[in-house]
């Protein structure tokens, strides 16, 4: 499997994870009854971190670092 | 309360600052490293956050709780899908110079109609959004000045926006160029609104609540505030809003423009995958604290403007002005970028098709002024829409109308990238259904609320019965209808060849190699043809630009390269006048020759070039095929044999490096040329090979550059059952010249070695006559009788002739024989000479050699070499025979061939060694008695004469070695 295909697979995985988190009842379940008003921001930040890690992995693969 | 003049002046100064930043970037006063930095690109995408985000998010949070986050989480999902959605769109738009969504659809579906419909609907869908910005700015002025605004305020704002929109985006003569200044200015605006929001959020958190702990404490005493956030989640609008914002992230005209059109690097797009969602997260951090601060302060204003209210509650003047500047930032960025994008679309798809300027008009200047006019018209239309609004709607409510509108393009975009079956009929039907349902469910109720049209109660009743929000109902109905009609239409209608080709290109594959050539035969001819439509100046500029892009010169005349030039000009023109119009102009002015087809070699090179240039990601199968193609190509190129492939009309498609070296003819010289045009002797040689029936041709002697060379030639016809597989043939050329020279050297060495072995016998043979001559001469000294003297003289002469004969044989045998031409000679003489030479050896004299040959047989061939064959065979036979043994040498005439048999009654050859005896250096003799080359050389010489050697042997009985040689015509005397 080429690097490009691997990167696309990881990107798809992160996208699906984000879709599952934001678009499914999981989101409501996590927020319901939570006293942490900033919880959505934390979860959102977690997804952004995943995307950042993926970006860094791609750059390493291209030898840019 | 703040003076309106202060607000206007600060707003104007701010916009001037933005213009200065843009101007500095374009003049190069700001380093390119900063201008092209990925963070600048990411911040420029912040144009997504308009006054709806800046002001309206707080109001949306107040009415719909956490739902406001869906507007930004959908964008996050869209950017996470970059490899599948945004990257392919970017590549396609860059490769084909597509500058808008309308260009994209017009290109994909090869339809001017698609471009028109998309443009009109995009205009209609964006007007509420422009109106929203004007509405938000005027409302914010009213709040800050505590006074109602007049018509002049909003009009003045619009005029200012028109001026700056033109200054930012309609200054260049060639609208194709990217606006680095605009990108930097928009990035600066995003930074300002982020900083302003974070600052006012900080004021809310620390100024109103005394810090996060105090806020938490207040929330714990007001749990209903958190419940109000969570409750709307359960009403099902969350997923719909995610979908709408997902679509809006790249389909809104301003978003497409900044994400795709103004993007200058793929790396920036990948960077934005995480950086842009981070920007949005930071932008939304202050929203909830601002909402609760406004509630805590019991502000008596629309929650949409709590941002301003909290600023005003701080008691300072500068904070509300700064917040106002942030609002101006948000509004102006949206309007400027949206109108630039829309004006481009209107120009390509509405204005140009309706009224194309005359050739004598400078096209670039005409396009520039048309853009400026369109910018003014669009902003005024937005202003007109603003006047229609009842001013009771929330900012979010107005914004969602535009979101649902652009979501109608989502099925089309997905189809462009992933569904080849989609065609223009399906697209237009689907879009038509979506637009209709959008208008019925959202636009008309808005106009009804403004009392422009009577209220349509039925639809509203239906919606209320389902318990859905207006925009939720509209989204579900319009998108469902859109997709349904899209699929039905695409399956029902036929897809044209043009659409199929465009579908292939959009899916990331290189287009099919063009078959037809351009009728215009030079760049100058291109200029003349294009000048009839574009004008001489524009045509000249476009052709020069395309030549420069492709690295071609003015004298280019190769048909395949002119075809590439044509395609490049079409691409460049797409960015200027839109893809559909560019396609029409090129098809009309640079017509294709429908009869003459491009040579296969040129098509292959076109494909190679496209695959290199397109930089498109190839999916698994195409990558594997490409790898295989390269491997096979490499194999052919690296073969040590010369390879020449031709197509059916005998034009060269492949000329590998080995053949280049053999012939001294470069690949570039011959590709695409007919075989007959190749320099001699190659043209004639290869043409002859193509015509030959009896292939392969072995050992063909050819004179190349005055030197004799030998080749084996092979030919294979490429069989095809039907089009589109190309036919033709492949020819292999094996250069035997070096081997010929080597074999000749080897044969000569073998003869010398044989001579060496014969030396002792030779000395003996010469010694005997010399002794005889000596005796006779001594006797003659004293002899008086003339009869005796005469007899002695005759005997002396006989002996000297005998010595001369022996020496002549030896000298003839030792000569290099390969340079002598074939000659005709009596076979019987050859046999006798061979026997005489072999019997020079004392040991071999003890073996009787009987030879028989019909006197009438004459052979044509290399006499020297055939003598060597017989000497080698007789030597082996005699060496294998016992003392006093017998060897027979027979020549038998068999129709068209001669059979020479060498029979010995010696030890024979074991069956397992029979296959080895003809191998070079194989010998059973002691060291010094033989080199093992005799039979191998004999085999080589006989084969070269078109004959063969057969060996039949039985251990203990003897060996029969048969040499079969063909007889040439007339080789038997009558």
Report the biggest beta sheet of chain B as strand number plus sense, adding barrel if it closes.
Answer: 5 strands, antiparallel
Percentage beta strand of chain B: 5-15%
Provide the CATH superfamily of the largest domain in chain B: Sodium/glucose cotransporter
Order of helices and strands of chain A: HHH
* Individual helix count of chain B: 40
Strand order of the largest sheet of chain B: 4-3-7-6-5
Number of strands of chain A: 0
Please name the CATH topology of the largest domain in chain B.
Answer: Sodium/glucose cotransporter
| Helix vs. strand class of chain B | alpha+beta
| Derived structural class of chain A | mainly alpha
Tell me the span between the first and last alpha carbons of chain A. Answer: 22 Å
Question: In terms of quaternary structure, what is this?
Answer: heterodimer
Quick description:
Chain A has 65 residues and is mainly α. Chain A has helices at 3-23, 25-31, 39-62.
How would you describe this protein?
The complex is a heterodimer of chains A (65) and B (974). By secondary structure, chain A is an all-alpha fold. Chain A has one domain. Chain A is built from three helices and no strands. Chain A has helices spanning 3-23, 25-31, 39-62. The longest helix of chain A is centred in the last third of the chain and has 24 residues, at 39-62. The mean pLDDT of chain A is 84. Chain B is an alpha+beta fold. Chain B has four domains: 4-25 and 32-423, Sodium/glucose cotransporter, CATH 1.20.1730.10; 520-597; 632-735, 2-Layer Sandwich (Beta-Lactamase); 740-966, 2-Layer Sandwich (Heat Shock Protein 90), CATH 3.30.565.10. Chain B is built from 40 helices and 14 strands. Chain B has a five-stranded antiparallel β-sheet with strand order 4-3-7-6-5, sandwiched between helices. In chain B, a hairpin with a 3-residue loop joins strand 13 (948-954) and strand 14. In chain B, helix 7 (101-108) runs antiparallel to helix 8 (112-145) and helix 17 (306-313) runs antiparallel to helix 18 (318-354). The longest helix of chain B is centred in the C-terminal third of the chain and has 46 residues, at 737-782. Chain B is elongated. Chain A binds chain B through residues 2, 4-5, 7-8, 11-12, 14-15, 18-19, 22-23, 27-28, 31-33, 35, 37, 40-41, 44-45, 47-49, 51-52, 54-55, 58, and chain B through 66, 69-70, 73, 76-77, 79-84, 219-220, 226, 229-230, 233-234, 238-239, 242, 270-271, 273-274, 277-278, 281, 284-285, 288, 617, 620, 623.
